[in-house]
Amino acid sequence: MAAADLDMNKVSYEIFSILESKFLFGYDDPKRFLQATPGASPLSPAAAAPGLSAKVRILSVDAGGATDGLLAAASLVRLESSLRRLTGDCSARICDFFDVAAGSGLGGILVALLFTGGPGGRPPFSAADAFDFLVRNRRALQPARTKKGAGLAGMFRKKSHAGGRRDQVLRQAFGSATLRDAVKPVLIPCYDLATGATFVFSRAGAAEADGYDFPIREVCAATAGGAEIRSVDGRTVVAAVDGGAAAGNPAAAAITHVLNNRAEFPFVAGVEDLLVVSLGNGEPGAPASVAPGGGGARWGKPDAARIASEGAADMVDQAVAMSFGDHRSTNYVRVQANLCDSGKFQSSSDTGELLAMAEGLLAQKNVESVLFWGKRVSQRTNAERLESASAALVRVQDGGRTKEGSPRSSSSSLLCSTSGSPMAAASPR
């Protein structure tokens, strides 16, 4: 499926059509919508292989958000630590347990770090390495907005310049790797100023034609801020700006890609054949001007920009959660948190303080989308949701043979455990 075909209008149509048909018109069988698709398989993975919990596993990572990407990075560290403990494999990586990954903004950089093959074909970055990379380089990767850019224009970051600090950091991390070097299908969006539409960099497009293959370091520059980049053959030029503004929550893009890609995912017949882990990056609380006792609603330009960006990400979360119906509690895991003071993440450069703040957000009760009722606070914390997700990922990896919460080898799993918090593994080298 070519990258150009993944237009966000199509993404929105696919997700919302499932939502509309499933809930507004009473259709309760997701397969009903997909079996009529030419080339669609009549059987789900579970039906094709009785007794196996076969699902396509999707990882989605939001743009930087209120935590500059650190909440998602911390979630990945905890998830990888749990996967290692459950499997007893101390070398296990995030990429081993997902079939597709999508990320925008700093989330796109995290996806690139964890899914781009190194010299030996395996990603050199663990989740802890990626967290450390983000802590050390987030100022270079995503420069602070200027005061003049406080309005909607401020949603777009400064463009990358060859030889600049961002270019040096990304070149050191990825070298000459391109989208074709991704070990699993990846989707990383940006907004193309030349066409006035969302452009999604994808491994599927890169494999199809040189005109859709781009250097990973330039893809990261495009989604995290902005850059005019060319494909490896020089034929395709993208005047890219902020992927977070284009698709702050890329979960819908990943789901649509899988549902429409019969070549790579022939047995997927509906959303119940998916397992989606969507990682948010925090939402700041309401400004004092609209908080209780704050003297009424006085929204400024920065607030309007925040509402537009975060509202779009929340809309995707709502639509995706609802499209899963009865499966949303098991097949769709969303990690998101609310910050009382988002400025601390932007101002702090102390790794220990950032780790503590991230763990505090993971200890929050998870917020769930509820049909026609907005959101509610669940009974489980974000950390507990991640533990449950890791158990589900391992069960899929084992074909349903591993019970939830039970490691395959208790003795070897002890070797992978760390004293105290799993976040300790993310300390700077």
From TrEMBL:
An example Gene Ontology biological process: lipid catabolic process
Domain of life from the UniProt record: Eukaryota
Coiled coil: none
UniProt keyword list: Hydrolase, Lipid degradation, Lipid metabolism
PNPLA domain residues: 60-255
Stretch list, region Disordered: 394-429
Residues spanned by motif DGA/G: 242-244
Key word Lipid metabolism present: yes
Family: Belongs to the patatin family.
Comment text on domains: The nitrogen atoms of the two glycine residues in the GGXR motif define the oxyanion hole, and stabilize the oxyanion that forms during the nucleophilic attack by the catalytic serine during substrate cleavage.
Protein name, as recorded: Patatin
